[in-house]
Amino acid sequence: MNPFSALFQPVSIGNMQLRNRIAMSAMTTNYGSADFEVTERLIAFHEARARGGAGLLTVEMCSVDVAQRYQPQALSLGDDRFIAGHRELVRRVHAQGSCVQPQISHPGPESMTDPVGPSVCVAAGTGWPCRALAEQELEPIMEQYAAAAVRAREAGYDGVELHAAHAYMLLGSFLSPQRNRRDDGYGGQTLETRSRLLLETIARIKRATGADFPLTLRISGHEGSFDGRELTETQRLAPKLVAAGVDCLQISGGVSHDRLVGQIVCGADTADGHNTAVAAAVRQVVSVPVMVVGRLHSPELSVQVVNEGRADIVMWARPLLADPELPEKLRNGRRAEVRECLSCQNCIDSMLLAPFDANMHCAVNGFSGREHSLRPVPVERRKRVVVIGAGTAGLEAARQCAGNGHEVILLERGPRSGGSLFLAATVHGANEPLLHYLRAEVQRLGVDLRLNTCADRAGVSALAPDAVIVATGARVAVADVPGGELPHVLQGPVLRQALAGRRQGLVGREPLWGWLARCLPAPFWRHLQPRHVRALARRWLPFGKRVCIVGDDLVALELAEFLQRLGRRVTLLTQAPVPALDVGPKRRQEQLARFDRLGGQVLAECAVRAITAVEVIFRCGEREGRLGADSVVLAGTPCSDATLASALQGAAAQVFSIGDCTGPGLIAGAVVDATHAACAIGRVYGES
Ligand SMILES: Cc1cc2nc3c(=O)[nH]c(=O)nc-3n(C[C@H](O)[C@H](O)[C@H](O)COP(=O)(O)O)c2cc1C
Ligand code: SF4
């Protein structure tokens, strides 16, 4: 019996019948046009998730007022001219068997154009204060909500979702004591006054659309802050919401008053399914279905939530970015083929990095947001593809090319696959599922993986490839520092080589790691997994008590956190104003906060001058500093390395360089490069 069968029982929201209990949560993508229109890109994005089997898709926040913009390329249902675009989206989603509804909202304080709210407050996203709405302005806004819901119905949507969660946007702000400080009939004094705008809006929508048009309400079960709403309040309010016309309650949690939405789009250290207990408590007081959202990233936990009656429907946001086919894979007994979300936050960061020209992308799924433009070209015959380097980029390219019907030979000079992903998965365990997924997929798809094989032009040409993909990774440059050769100093490339299992490079390079390489037999290195290294490191770690890591990037910061967690006193010495500038602000902030909580120290804008047996001498501006250190890591800087790619030019009809050998790009860069190369090589006609 399928262990996930409970997820595939049909369920109804009002008269909306879902084929299963899996819903996709709203995600702002910035795939809309600058004029609020639905685009082909947005449609293709949703179509892919519908094809992947989700029962219900939520289309991202649609502003009920065209004069109120939420994001640079957000959507709107504030005018009849938008109906046609939404209708096409609905048609394409329905054709794949999913139900679909838009999230409708007035951005309120979060507006980029004319921020308004219950009282004056500053929106974290824009940094702008909003104006308090006069009571007589509320009536037309409720009308806008109702009109938007009617347009949604005309477009063919199966229902609408109303956003009143997170003390966010207009309804969420009125509902929360944190933001509602008015003292009129819609004011913050009591639950009755704070919920009045929401209840009247629900009634208005139901009157306009008809009672049979399903309405889902997104609400925080509790707001998780000292001046926010409590669960008991939601329990008191919920039956009134249902009486007003709500057909389904969607339980999220927290408030989103930091720009990085830390309580909503939670990082790797937040408990899985962190809103489920609260959802279960709300479910006890209502008769309508309850959905729950928030880090339900484990299918096993998701099915348990449904089995135990904690919620009727589970909502996934990021898991469906990472793997749109997730529901179908579970339904068909293909659990092992699921590509899991790493909670790396690239999806949020890709929008925060350049807010006026930024679209959402997923680090582990190169097609996410590119479904409309990126497809493998059709080819008539099976090609022989030689991929060199079995790190993230090489494994992903091999996986895709094999999946597209080609014969793939994957050459790896080390004794096992993974490359720098092994280090990334060791120091940050949330990365480990990607390593296992890629390894398992290349095996399942019949990729010919040749370990301990160094590639050169003659060897590659002898394989007579139609296409060559060079994915040999970065060269890690370490600056010459006086004392860098001392025995307690570990060079980044040595650490990487050790963890990649390339023993040859280690012997004689550095006493301790060289000794390890010599003494431990080859099978040990071959079968070593990141979790083994973590377990071993808890018992024995070749680092002194005080560790100084010299480095600027995410890897250096992750290593610092890893060692600090293992009881070392770690100082990260970085030349940059802040470490990990190679990732976006959300991931960086999460990583830094964890390191900080553990007691780690960052010294920014500091350059190392020398290392002695007992200390690191550095310079910060004009000032010289000294830091006691028993162990030092010179993490180094990854740089592009075109050596092999240059040597292989012309070795096949198609030659690609991908991943870090073209310049550091982390997992996201490696995956998207691999996707582009695999698409250019193409898919064999008739292959699935
Ligand atoms: C890229 C991105 C955009 C989001 N945009 C919205 C949004 O427009 N409206 C909303 O209510 N929630 C939004 N969210 C929050 C998600 O709906 C969801 O609550 C959150 O990601 C937690 O679920 P997950 O752990 O399954 O990702 C967004 C999340 C992500 C990752
Ligand atoms: S970008 Fe990272 S956090 Fe976002 S969905 Fe993809 S893997 Fe998950």
Keywords:
alpha/beta, 5-stranded parallel β-sheet, Rossmann fold, FAD/NAD(P)-binding domain, binds flavin mononucleotide, TIM Barrel, 3 domains, 8-stranded parallel beta barrel, 30 strands
How many E-type strands?
A: 30
How many DSSP helices?
Answer: 24
Q: Main β-sheet: number of strands, strand sense, barrel status?
A: 8 strands, parallel, barrel
Q: Helices and strands: which structural class?
A: alpha/beta
Q: Are there runs of 5+ residues with pLDDT below 50, and where?
A: none
Strand content: 15-25%
**What top-tier CATH class of the largest domain fits best?**
Alpha Beta
**Strand arrangement across the biggest beta sheet:** 3-4-6-9-10-11-12-13
CATH superfamily of the largest domain: Aldolase class I
- The portion of residues assigned to helices is 25-40%
From the spread of the alpha carbons, the general shape counts as globular
CATH topology of the largest domain: TIM Barrel
What's the Cα radius of gyration? 27 Å
Distance between the termini: 26 Å
CATH architecture of the largest domain: Alpha-Beta Barrel
Number of domains: 3
What small molecules does this complex bind?
flavin mononucleotide, iron/sulfur cluster
